[in-house]
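Before relying on records like the one below, remember that each one covers exactly one chain. Contacts with other chains, cofactors or solvent are not represented anywhere in the record.
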Amino acid sequence: MTSWAPKFSPYIILLLSACICSWIRWPILKKADRWICLLLSLTVIEESLAEYFKIYFRNNSVIYHIYTPIELFIICIYFDLSLKITKPYRLAFLIGIPGIIVSAFITIYIQPYYKFNSYFLLIEGLVIVSLCLLAFYKLLLREDIVPKMMAQFWLTISFLLYWSVTYISLGLFSGEVNNIDFVAKIIAWTLYIPNFLFYVSLMIVFIRYKKLIPSGE
């Protein structure tokens, strides 16, 4: 790990803690929120493999090429269930599956597996931010709930803030990550800190889950 890169240990400990909290709540989680639990579990595996590849192979980009389309697919399922789309899993089929195809196309023809897949991450970010705005719109139309008492509200805020803050950095990251300079350091921390805060927010949601209205209700 280069000297300017953020430390991995605090981040993975926090991520693992959020994952454990979600699994502790698994028996009472509703269907939509269980997908966030599964996403956290997948992320623990992905980040561990990425760190391993970074240390021993000096390049972990292939891990993100595999993980990110799966991540988008799972998030689409979450919004499918939490937004109560007319036909179940419509977003997963209309967005998630084409996303996997687009990711494969980008990997084969534009950004190969040994390069950071920033192009697909920008597409993923745009899709997720749009889904978050749609979720807020649907929440505002409801008069029978208080948004701050809903798990869906806090999870949506977490996704929206994370992807909004990191969106620009993702576009710059692949061009600067190999340069050990001040710009690369700023970009790395701009990606690291929102990740850290994102998993803190998810952990808090699962800790308080019994006091919140589950997603999709």
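Residues 125 and 163 are 6 Å apart (CA to CA).
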